[in-house]
User: Fold this.
Amino acid sequence: MRMRLKDIAVMLVACTVAVPAWAGDFKVHRYVAEKWNTNSYWLESDSGIVVIDAQLFRSDAKLMATMIKSTGKPVAGAFITHAHGDHFGGLNALFEELGSFPVITTQKTADGFKPTHESYLTYGFGDDFDKKLVEADRIVEDGAKLNLAGIDLMVDEIGAGESENSILIYQPDRKILFTGDATMHSAHFYLGEGFSEGALAQHRHIQKTYGDAKLLYPGHGDPATPRSVLASEIEYITFQQSLVKEALNMPGNMKEDGTGLKDDAVKKIVAAILARYPHLGDYDIGAETFLGWNVSGLVRELKTAD
Assistant:
């Protein structure tokens, strides 16, 4: 009985966040995972569905598929914004429920699927993380313009930042932008892969190119206007850079083997970040752990730059 009540509660949460917002001749639906707060979206037109990102766990993908199936409309394709497992790991579960459909991304993003999938298999997720990898089978170029289910969409490849490569999906008629993890609203931004300068370049690109967008739909957090999130995320990233640079310039902070900062130095940086941004979410990972990853990534990047 406890499991049934929990399942019902999860379904209610999922249904609540998936309430559609009208956007002219199509609707934008959203599914938010209970763990990691990962967003997936699906656009519903009169003729079909377009999915943007596919969750991490089979259980989440199955719930999302149930909602999509209730429309009675076919899936015309799924865009994957970047090669992190919480955005493509649920593809096979979606196939099982909805039938196969094109998986769309750029070559650089597709190249990251297999190594990322292999690393996630070691994380102890159990059977809820699919052991079967679904590869992208529709490779598009930067700037590609597609019409799926009657919806015009444009692909903008923006390189490394939160991940090794990322794409944006823009809908020009309604001026809405799906950013994947290029933006993370109301949550700590991930810098653990060592591409903070790339992340700053991405934010400035979005400011310049999509500053008049009505809404940004992120990989984590609620949709928001460019003005309400971009400047604050740039400040957040540059603040962390400054803390790590300062620590690297202080004698005695590095480990003797030169692999990173000593634990006390890392804790001091993390405490400063939490003091300044106490309101940001941590994806149920724990802020100290998550920000420790950020510090490690920044150390690698800044030491290499020197």
Notes: The chain has ten helices and twelve strands. Confidence is low (pLDDT under 50) at residues 1-23. The longest strand covers residues 176-184.
